[in-house]
Task: inverse folding
């Protein structure tokens, strides 16, 4: 009897340069996100952009949504190489445009260009992983990509702050651009063989592809309309007529989102159909819960507990470290990977409830930091598993579209979580006592409901789909990882 050959590792000689290149791309994208967020106050101060400060971030998200949708269909038709090249070029162009901006609106335009590139880039990276790496190695790759966010999360804000103060904020943008280019040069030669799929999916070609692109435009436009209207409504000095128009704009934007979103997700996602739809739905729910809560943790620690800002940031750093630990933990499972969605959603529910309880009881700061580290672990475990499962349950000709659906769930979940938490905060906040911890407790308990819904969705995702996995995906679904 002959021995069965061991599955190829992500660090095998053939794959090692590609693995390092993908890690470098995600590291650069993470550093760009952290560094730019740190530098933006200085940008707004010098270029008189305080009134439009939020647009610099919302434009990135809006364009990223559009890029994600376009890349999904494109990679299914042409393979990941064109989308990866365009994504890298757009991200670099956006950084250069923002770095050279004479006025704040140009910075906002640069952020939109970078966001468009980021949307193309992340979908292309997912398709590269799905097509270039054996199924058993994919969980490890996604674990490393999650870990690639840790160092930028810890040192990115510090480095960007020093550069902005000692040199100039422009170098925060201009300095990241060559790093992104270098990462792209490492990856490009390694994916030359990843051409178009042998049997392109009919839904990604011809009229269907154009309809998907139009839906993406409607979705991104709707999200932007809602965000812009909310930003303007929060500003002082709106007349009654202007307020009415802004409310109408927000309503139209929401309608556009609800009309276009179902056509950009696998059928049954919004009702949590079993299998792939619920896997993507779980991704959106946990993003709502985690990012909505995380946005208000520093504010609670500073206003309600009197903690200084750098110390408050330790909780977020702990979450990033926990996220990395969870991403690596999911590479070692020896049971059906779908059950990690249930486990991760359960852990996130417990940590959000525990964080609310500990905050209300004035628990010591180290306890809060430890709890949030476990929340990060839940996210690392859940999100890496959803990435692996979506690739394993998708035919090669549909990996682009389904990866795009996963990113849409990511982005909309984060927006809904932070916007919803912000709305609840505005409604419950007492201006005479801005540091009332009860307001934050209410926010985390409300978000805990979304994490609990993720348990139900995860159970639906754990049910075997009607069309079972092929032989080459079983190792990925079972969680088997090469030594």
Result:
């Amino acid at each position: 009897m002959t021995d069965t050959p061991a599955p190829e590792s992500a660090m095998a000689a053939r794959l090692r340069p590609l693995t390092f290149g993908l890690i470098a791309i995600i590291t650069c994208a993470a550093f760009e996100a952290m560094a730019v967020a740190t530098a933006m106050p200085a940008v707004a101060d010098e270029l008189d952009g305080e009134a439009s400060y939020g647009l610099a971030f919302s434009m990135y998200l809006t364009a990223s949504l559009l890029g994600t949708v376009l890349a999904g269909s494109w990679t299914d038709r042409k393979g990941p190489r064109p989308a990866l090249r365009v994504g890298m070029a757009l991200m670099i162009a956006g950084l250069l445009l923002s770095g050279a901006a004479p006025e704040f609106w140009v910075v906002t335009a640069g952020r939109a260009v970078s966001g468009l590139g980021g949307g193309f880039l992340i979908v292309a990276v997912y398709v590269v992983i799905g097509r270039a790496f054996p199924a058993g190695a994919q969980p490890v790759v996604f674990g490393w990509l999650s870990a690639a966010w840790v160092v930028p999360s810890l040192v990115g804000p510090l480095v960007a702050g020093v550069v902005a103060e000692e040199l100039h904020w422009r170098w925060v943008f201009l300095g990241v651009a060559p790093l992104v280019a270098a990462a792209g040069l490492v990856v490009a030669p390694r994916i030359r063989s990843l051409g178009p799929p042998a049997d392109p999916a009919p839904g990604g070609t011809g009229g269907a592809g154009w309809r998907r692109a139009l839906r993406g435009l409607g979705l991104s436009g709707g999200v932007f309309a809602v965000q812009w209207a909310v930003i303007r409504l929060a500003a002082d000095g709106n007349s009654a007529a202007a307020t009415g128009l802004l409310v109408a704009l927000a309503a139209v934007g929401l309608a556009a989102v609800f009309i276009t979103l179902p056509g950009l997700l696998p059928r049954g996602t919004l009702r949590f159909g079993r299998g792939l739809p619920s896997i993507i739905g779980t991704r959106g729910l946990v993003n709502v819960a985690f990012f909505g809560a995380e946005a208000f943790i520093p504010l609670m620690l500073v206003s309600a507990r009197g903690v200084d800002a750098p110390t408050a940031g330790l909780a977020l750093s702990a979450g990033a470290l926990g996220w990395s630990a969870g991403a690596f933990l999911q590479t070692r499972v020896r049971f059906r990977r779908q059950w990690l969605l249930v486990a991760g959603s359960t852990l996130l529910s417990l940590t959000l409830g525990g964080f609310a309880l500990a905050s209300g009881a004035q628990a010591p700061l180290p306890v809060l930091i430890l709890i949030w580290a476990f929340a990060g672990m839940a996210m690392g475990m859940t999100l890496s598993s959803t990435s692996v499962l979506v690739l394993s349950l998708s035919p090669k000709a549909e990996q682009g579209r389904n990866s795009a659906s996963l990113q849409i769930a990511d982005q909309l979940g984060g927006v809904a979580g932070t916007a919803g938490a912000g709305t609840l905060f505005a409604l419950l906040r007492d201006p005479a006592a801005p540091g009332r911890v009860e307001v934050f407790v209410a926010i985390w308990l409300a978000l805990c409901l979304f994490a609990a819904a993720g348990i139900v969705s995860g159970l639906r995702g754990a049910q075997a789909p009607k069309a079972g996995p092929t032989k080459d995906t079983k190792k990925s679904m079972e969680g088997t990882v090469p030594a």
Observations:
- The chain has 17 helices and no strands.
